[in-house]
Amino acid sequence: MKTYTRVLSIAGSDSGGCAGIQADLKTFSALGCFGMTAITALTAQNTQGVRAVHPVPVDMLVQQIDAVVEDMGVHAVKIGMLHSAEVVLAVAQVIDRHYLPYVVLDPVMVATSGAVLIENSAVGALVEQLFSKVTVVTPNLDEASLLVGRTLRTTDDMEVAAKELIAMGAKAVLLKGGHLASDTVHDLLAVAGRANHWMQAPRIVTTNTHGTGCTLSSAIAAYLALGMELMQAVEAARLFVRSALQAGSHTRTGHGSGPLNHGFAPMAMRTFAP
User: Could you report the per-residue pLDDT of 250-269, keeping only the tens digit for each?
Assistant: First the structure.
């Protein structure tokens, strides 16, 4: 009997379907993986912003993860919105207890609309409890600025910040430079003990960027589950996101920042003999 490549998303739910758990599942499916979820919080949101956040009780979150891992198993994990220090600690303990492989941490702190999605105490907990346990951390400039305590405005700032995040315990950091004022997007992959790897590409002109970070981190997790090395997975995930942005650039969904087109070229579900 064959089995599917299975990827678990531990993240918040987006009622608008653009980001969070919903974007993760669309990404997993598009890349031929079987997606599973453990929801950390419910959000009432659309393309214009977040109206409300309702945390899932920590025990229920842990029960979701245990139920999936103990029966179905996982090949990789994507972690998104963890709104409190208590939730961060619970997820860290679950990673250790189940020896979860290939964990991608997207430190979701601020929504595309600007809404703050994390408690102050959880920021420090992410660093202390999770950085050393995950394969790669994928902050954007706003999130990295919160983590290092200052605004990042240039590629030189990104170099220094990536070094600091590695010093905080991260094994690898993908620092996303999409918020820099430039016609070229600069992303930096920093891996402990290795030379920095810069990736550049022309900026895609579109207002439909809601869920870009969620999609990138879940694509990295999917490609890691499919057997790619980290740098290869990051490069492939960036290409997937760029293609989804381009494919969705001429559509309109809602009155704000719309979604990517995750289904521009879906792949068949990958199976293999265990």
Answer: 999 999 999 999 999 999 99
